[in-house]
Amino acid sequence: MQAKVYIIGSSGHAKVVIDAIEAEANYQIAGLLDDFKMVGETTLGYPVIGDLTYISSLAILTEPEPVNLFIAVGDNFNRRAIAEKINAMGKKVNYIRVLHPKASISKYTNIGYGSIVMANATLAPEVQIGSHTIINHNASVDHDCILAAFCSIAPGAVLSGNVHLGELTAIGTGSNIIEKITVGHNSVIGAGATVTHSIDENQLAIGCPAKAIKIRAMGEKYLK
User: Fold this and answer.
1) 32: Cβ–Cβ under 8 A, 6 or more apart, which residues?
2) CA dihedral 168, 171, 173, 175 (to 10 degrees)
3) What share of the chain has pLDDT > 70, as a percent?
């Protein structure tokens, strides 16, 4: 019998998370939790059953087992804020990993809890993926890369070997990062950029080669 998992979020990113969980077939989706949707609204046939406070009642029902959760929110800062809110509840929870069966993942790769690797993504040996990180469709992460928690790699992005990403960093669609580059925390690499030198923290960098064009405030939106 499959264990139940509750998905936090019910918008666009939740759709691809649901699709990957169904493909992996390790968990049964028991419902969606969303602070901004009405109970009964559905995403891909799964209903919103409550908001984050619903976790408290679930924890009572499942004691002593933890509640299985996955935060399906695309924005890195918002995903971290939700994790912090849940952790502050003091309930026993387990953030599952979601690994699409069509992803190519080296057995020498380490993937943190609450992270997802989507279809046709590639993770090479000795890649380290932090917790609650998104590796999107057709992304490629080469050997010895280190990605901190709450990062996101958009579809088609390529990270060469020994790239290091700080927490909350977002790598845009179709961008390329050459080997041995560091991108600081809370920075964003724009879609289609080519990164040939390291980028400091809290930067928005675009172009070929990528150049930092502005300082980002913590929590500033980058997903439209």
Assistant:
1) 6, 7, 8, 9, 10, 14, 43, 46, 47, 48, 49
2) 180
3) 98
pTM over 0.90: yes
**Residue 147: closest CA among 205, 72, 76:** 76
pLDDT at 140 > cutoff 70: yes
pLDDT band at 33 (very low <50, low <70, confident <90, very high): very high
Amino acid residing at 208:
C
Count the neighbouring beta carbons within 10 Å of the beta carbon of residue 88: 8
* Distance of alpha carbon 62 from alpha carbon 59, whole angstroms: 5
Is the predicted pLDDT of residue 220 greater than 80, yes or no? Answer: yes
Exposed, middle or buried: residue 79 (CB in 10 Å: 0-12, 13-18, 19+)? buried
Main-chain dihedrals φ then ψ at residue 59, nearest 5 degrees? -65, -35
CA 19, 148, 144, 164 torsion-angle sign: positive
Locus of tokens 């019998």: 1
Query: Picking from 2-6, 114-118, 144-148, 194-198, which range would have the lowest pLDDT averaged per residue?
Result: 2-6
Joined together, the tokens standing for residue 135 give 């590796």
